[in-house]
Automatic annotation (TrEMBL):
Residues 17-301 form the SAM-dependent MTase RsmB/NOP-type domain. This is NOL1/NOP2/sun family putative RNA methylase. GO terms for molecular function: RNA binding; tRNA (cytidine-5-)-methyltransferase activity. It comes from the Archaea. The active site is at C230. InterPro entries: MeTrfase_RsmB-F_NOP2_cat, MeTrfase_RsmB-F_NOP2_dom, Nop2p, RCMT, SAM-dependent_MTases_sf. It comes from Halorubrum xinjiangense. The keyword NADP does not apply. GO terms for biological process: tRNA methylation. Belongs to the class I-like SAM-binding methyltransferase superfamily. RsmB/NOP family. Pfam families: Methyltr_RsmB-F (PF01189). S-adenosyl-L-methionine binds at C106, A107, A108, P109, G110, S111, K112, D130, D157, D177. Keywords: Methyltransferase, RNA-binding, S-adenosyl-L-methionine, Transferase.
């Protein structure tokens, strides 16, 4: 079974959705503000003959038509990082500030960790955690190449994360960029569709619920938690939010993203979810010519008030 068949009832234009899922994904880099501004990266590309196309909805993202993000000196010198367009969205929603304490619960290989550190002007503390030691070595390598110094690395199962090794016991913000069935990455890795099973979806949903619950518990009252996946499956998205809303002290807030999105769904295969999951964002590939993604923003310590007083940088 092709899992994309399951989502035909959710999308506005089935043919456009299926056609976009069949196209290969553009190669994209993010300017690393810790080392160089987007303007400086643009100049460096011009000086060194790297072909690029700026992404119109976010300053500092560049599509590279030659498809080789690492084959130029701005990359080697840590001015850029290969990062898919939709992958920058959770950090925009998280909106971390310089000096804060931020937990990246499932962090490796560190695309979002390093973007968070950049958004914090490399000040404060990012705790980059992952349960996979091998993937953490890639994260360390990326942080070093990009010149990030505010990040410490932990290797724990995020579901039982202990703050004991840290000098503090709660965070201002937390990101759960969860392990998932990765359906939305089919444009760069079509194998995910062949390997897909419903059993895996249910198994990973259990992990997602545990990690998101721990992130809410580890974040101070009034703090922000962002939940993201690169999959379309409501079992791994809205159902996870619904579970955590029912069991932890938190609420979903409305927020803006600078590209076309669809709201979270409140019904799926006989299940219904809390009405507030419509505040989450679904990103379908045909809407912005990107990968598929899901992103939600939670406020700890009470119901979301339906608005995001902090705004989201574009
Ligand atoms: C989608 S990837 C994270 C990508 C990363 N945020 C980035 O932007 O580069 C999910 C990660 O979750 C990790 N993971 C899976 N189960 C975990 C658990 N129980 N606790 C912590 N990390 C886990 C995987 O090793 C994987 O690196």
């Amino acid at each position: 079974m092709n899992p994309l068949d399951r989502y035909e009832s959710l999308v506005d234009d089935v043919d456009a959705f299926r056609a976009a899922c069949d196209r290969s994904l553009p190669s994209v880099v993010r300017a690393n503000g810790v080392a160089a501004s987007p303007d400086r990266v643009r100049e460096a590309f011009d000086e060194s003959g790297v072909a690029y196309e700026p992404v119109d909805w976010h300053d500092g993202l560049f599509r590279l038509p030659d498809g080789n993000p690492g084959g130029n000196w701005p990359y080697v010198h840590g001015w850029t990082h290969g990062q898919e367009e939709v992958s920058v969205l959770p950090t925009l929603a998280l909106d971390p500030r310089p000096g804060e304490r931020v937990w990246d619960a499932c962090a490796a290989p560190g695309s979002k960790t390093t973007q968070i550190a950049d958004a914090m002007d490399d000040e404060g503390t990012v705790v980059a955690n992952d349960n996979n030691l091998g993937r953490l070595s890639a994260l360390r390598h990326n942080a070093e190449r990009l010149g990030i110094t505010n990040t410490i690395v932990t290797n724990q199962d995020a579901r039982n994360f202990s703050t004991k090794p840290l000098a503090f016991d709660e965070f201002d913000r937390a990101l759960v960029d969860a392990p998932c069935s990765c359906e939305g990455t089919c444009r760069k890795n079509p194998d995910v569709l062949d390997q897909w099973t419903l059993d895996h979806v249910h198994a990973v949903a259990g992990i997602q619920k545990g990690v998101l619950a721990r992130a809410v518990q580890a974040t101070r009252p009034g703090g922000t938690v962002v939940y993201s996946t690169c999959t379309f499956a409501p079992e791994e998205n809205e159902a996870v939010l619904d579970h955590v809303l029912a069991n932890e002290d938190c609420g979903l807030v409305a927020f803006d993203l600078p590209l076309d999105t669809d709201p979270g769904v409140t019904e799926w295969e006989g299940e219904t979810y809390d009405e507030s999951v419509t505040r989450a964002k679904r990103i379908y590939p045909h809407r912005n010519d990107t990968g598929g993604f899901f992103c939600a923003k939670l406020r700890v310590g009470g119901e979301g008030d339906g608005s995001d007083g902090e705004g989201v940088a574009a």
